[in-house]
Task: inverse folding
């Protein structure tokens, strides 16, 4: 007997793979794989088989590097062979906020 989680994950992966490639599809797969906190902490963009992950700030960069291999494997299970690599980019620099007098 198969656990329900395995069946549900397989069905979800099949539904996602059947959708045409789009930003929304990639973002949805990212939110499923990364979980709520990490999904909110970074944006993703899939181009030419590479998923570019941009953390919102430097606090998340190390966590994304640490989890990169696991995230890639899980994303490949959902998106299929079109995803070859995951690259974590640098967080955007916030503007230098100097006090105004």
Result:
């Amino acid at each position: 007997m198969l656990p329900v989680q395995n069946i549900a994950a397989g069905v979800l992966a099949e539904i996602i793979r059947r959708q045409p490639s789009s930003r929304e599809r990639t973002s949805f797969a990212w939110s499923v794989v990364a979980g709520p906190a990490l999904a909110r902490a970074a944006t993703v963009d899939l181009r030419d088989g590479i998923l570019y992950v941009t953390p919102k700030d430097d606090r998340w960069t190390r966590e994304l590097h640490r989890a990169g291999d696991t995230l890639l494997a899980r994303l490949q299970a959902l998106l299929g062979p079109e995803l070859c690599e995951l690259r974590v980019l640098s967080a955007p620099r916030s503007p230098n906020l100097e006090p105004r007098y």
Remarks:
- Residues 23-88 form a domain with the Alpha-Beta Plaits fold (CATH 3.30.70).
